[in-house]
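Troubleshooting entry. Yesterday's outputs looked truncated, so today I'm pasting the complete records for two proteins to confirm everything comes through intact. If either block looks cut off, that's the bug. Protein one:
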Amino acid sequence: MTEAPAPEFDRRMIEALVCPVTQTVLRYDAEKQELVSKAARLAFPIRGGIPVMLVDEARKIED
């Protein structure tokens, strides 16, 4: 059984989203399907085309 491709993320949505920790702009990483907050050093996953903006679900970014 073949998995269906993930729904496309609406890139216009990023303009309305900010980091829930720092209230700063997020960068969209299409390869990893994440929204990245450089200020908070967190990457928020996008699952099924929907950003998961929960700190508990975010990946910590190392330098």
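Protein two, checking that the full record survives here as well:
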Amino acid sequence: MDIEKVEKVVKKKRTKFPEKLIQEIAEAAERHNLDDKELDELVKEIKKANQRAGVENGEAVGTVAAQSVGEPGTQMTMRTFHYAGVAELNVTLGLPRLIEIVDARKKISTPTMGIYFDEEYSADEEFVRRIANRIGKIILNDILKDFNVNYANMNLSIEIDEEKVADKRLDYDEIIAKIEKAFKKVDIDKNLLSFEPTISDPKHAIRELRLLADKVRDLQISGVKNIGKVVIRKEGPEWAIHTEGSNLGAVLKMEGVNKTRTSTNDIHEVEKVLGVEAARNAIIHEAQSTMEEQGLTVDVRHIMLVADMMTADGKVKSIGRHGISGEKASVLARASFEETGKHLLRASIRGEVDHLTGIIENIIIGQPIPLGTGSVGVVMKDKK
């Protein structure tokens, strides 16, 4: 059934539906082969349901949202779990993760990414493994066959394992170039390399050699900044990569990476790379999946309100004294939350005026709150 026909019926009922809902009605009408009368009845019922689902004027939505998120939050666990089905990656879940989200932490405890690929590459295991080795951190120690510290000659010799290089899909010449750039005194004979420390004081020669040995072992030869381990997983017909650490900007630039499905759990990084609207969606998604993982269902609208409050100013803010609660217009509301003395003192120095427009300040001074029945004022006109 065409959408225009449904739009006409909706208009006739003097109501307004979102585009997506109109589309769904049209699809349902086509699926069930509805005639005009039945379509009319369907729209009428949906209008009723839509009105029932709306929020009453003067409803204390903030309080309801706070209770609806806070109450299930008390039933959450405090542990850090292993990533679903992968032993090598840890990810913070439960209450600590929820606190991390609403606190809008700059540094989260376990940043991770889920990297997915475009259709033509998603089933190609070889391509995915090659990309995984470009993303994950690989140090020189991972591709060595032999590592020998010679204290008699005061030098260090290593042998690169060509099989490991091939297995990790790395370019041998690139590795050599990186080694030459990092170390001045290096002698290269095919895959045998020997290093000499720069010794300024003979007394500390052994220490210098040991430091050089550590530096050689830990030289990073491949990988994206801030990303450590990577795990390749087969999810249905396609391959995906899960990482420890996160760098959304660098990963999205890689060829074959699906830009719409690749995600990170670091909200500030989402904001930096994709903007505040994407960060709002990330807050909703992260909070909801944290709840669902614990088997708790919270209506998405409560979480949406939290996300809207956190991103209303065009940047992600926390819900604590450094964010939303600390920036309220009312002095009494700020003082009731945290650091009471500080807020009252500052307000008195500045000569601030509290207009008592919110809830908290009205409760403090014992007036009806401007919500529910308190949002209506009755005026009587006396007869002339």
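Both blocks look complete. Sanity check on protein two: The mean pLDDT is 84.
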